[in-house]
Specification:
Belongs to the sigma-70 factor family. ECF subfamily. By secondary structure, this protein is mostly helical. It is built from 8 helices and no strands.
Length: about 170
């Protein structure tokens, strides 16, 4: 890799690492695992950096790689680990933080495939077509998974969904 390409990759990481980390956290609900997922995505991106046709597409490629790494990780871990209650990385203050924590806890219980769709569609604000491309699914499958994922999230939240919405 040439020095210019190396600098371009470093600039990309400096500019986009925080956004990738937030997305990873929303997917997995664990800051440490989020860092691992971002690292895996950046390693894959680095390996392809010189072959990217459009450097502007690097963030999309990284986000797609990150999402797929999360889904692959959940498949590998699905039979072994059981998440337990855990303290947030920073102290919560006020009703907004309480709502956010309740929503994050509920999101952590949503099926990984549905969770990936919900994060990409509603947090990352991706279109149905963009989400479908990232997850390598049809648009219809994304619509269906979004509907089912929201239903699962509502079911998990139960009566507390009204409290969250009222805030």
């Amino acid at each position: 890799m040439s020095p210019e390409q190396e600098n371009g990759f470093e600039d990309f990481v400096a500019a986009r690492q925080a956004a990738l980390r937030r997305t990873a956290y929303l997917l997995c609900g664990d800051w440490h695992l989020a860092e691992d997922l971002v690292q895996a995505a950046l390693i894959r991106l680095y390996a392809r950096w010189t072959r990217l046709r459009d450097p502007q597409a690097a963030f999309g490629y990284a986000r797609t790689t990150l999402t797929r790494a999360y889904i692959d990780d959940r498949r590998r871990r699905s039979s072994g680990e059981v998440p337990g209650a855990e303290l947030p990385d920073r102290a919560a203050a006020g009703a907004d933080s309480d709502r956010r924590l309740a929503l994050m806890a509920a999101l952590a219980r949503v099926t990984p495939g549905y969770r990936a769709v919900l994060v990409l569609r509603y947090w990352e604000d991706q279109s149905i077509e963009e989400t479908a491309a990232i997850l390598r699914r049809s648009s219809g499958a994304v619509r269906s998974d979004a509907h089912r994922g929201l239903a699962q999230l509502r079911s998990i939240l139960g009566g507390s969904i009204n409290e969250i919405a009222a805030g």
